[in-house]
TrEMBL record:
Protein name as it appears in the record: TMM79 protein
GO BP term, pick one: regulated exocytosis
Name of the gene this protein is made from: Tmem79
Membrane-crossing residue ranges in chain numbering: 30-54, 75-98, 104-125, 132-153
GO cellular component: lysosomal membrane; trans-Golgi network membrane
Keywords of this entry: Membrane, Transmembrane, Transmembrane helix
Length: 162
C-alpha cells in the first residue's frame, strides 16, 4: 500500500512535468534516459561486490563464499534480472501512457532505484527483513505488467502487432 501512495504523492507534489513527447520514438528515448538512472543501484552493487570479493580472506577464488560476499553477489544478480523486467515494462508503458501521465516514468524509475537500495540494506540486516524492499520493487513491476497487458489487449487490440 505504500508504493501507490508514494507515487501518487510524488506525482501531485513534485513540481516538474514531462517534456512534450508526441512520437513513440521520443517516448522510448525518454524512457531509456530515465532507465539510465535506475542502473545506479546495480552498478553500485557491482562495485561493492567486487570490493568485498577482493577484501575477503578467501584463499580459493572458486571456494566457499563468505556471507558478506554472497549478500552482494545475490543482490547484483537479482537486481539485474529485475532491471531487465523493469526496463521492458517501462518501454511498453511509455507507448501507452497519455502525455499528461508521462511524469510517471521518472517517478517509477526513482521508486525502482530507492526500493532496490532498501532491499539491499534490509537483506544485509537479515533475510527475514528483505520482503519489504522486494515488494517495493516487484509490486510496481506487476502493476506495470498488468497495465501493459490491459493496454495491449483491451485498449488497442488492433495495434497489437503493428
Amino acid at each position: 500500500f505504500l508504493c501507490p501512495c508514494l507515487v501518487y504523492g510524488a506525482y501531485v507534489f513534485l513540481p516538474f512535468d514531462a517534456p512534450l513527447l508526441p512520437t513513440i520514438s521520443a517516448r522510448l528515448v525518454y524512457t531509456l534516459r530515465c532507465a539510465a538512472f535506475a542502473t545506479f543501484p546495480v552498478v553500485l552493487g557491482m562495485i561493492v561486490s567486487g570490493i568485498s570479493r577482493l577484501c575477503s580472506s578467501a584463499l580459493e577464488p572458486f571456494g566457499e563464499l563468505h556471507r558478506e560476499v554472497e549478500i552482494h553477489r545475490t543482490y547484483v544478480s537479482q537486481s539485474v534480472h529485475l532491471f531487465i523486467l523493469y526496463f521492458f515494462n517501462m518501454a511498453v508503458l511509455a507507448t501507452y501512457l497519455p502525455q499528461e501521465l508521462l511524469k510517471l516514468i521518472p517517478l517509477l524509475t526513482g521508486l525502482f532505484a530507492i526500493s532496490r537500495l532498501i532491499f539491499w540494506m534490509s537483506y544485509a540486516i537479515g533475510r527475514s527483513f528483505r520482503a519489504f524492499g522486494f515488494s517495493m520493487t516487484f509490486l510496481p513491476l506487476l502493476a506495470m505488467l498488468l497495465w501493459n497487458l490491459y493496454g495491449m489487449f483491451v485498449l488497442e487490440p488492433e495495434n497489437l502487432l503493428a
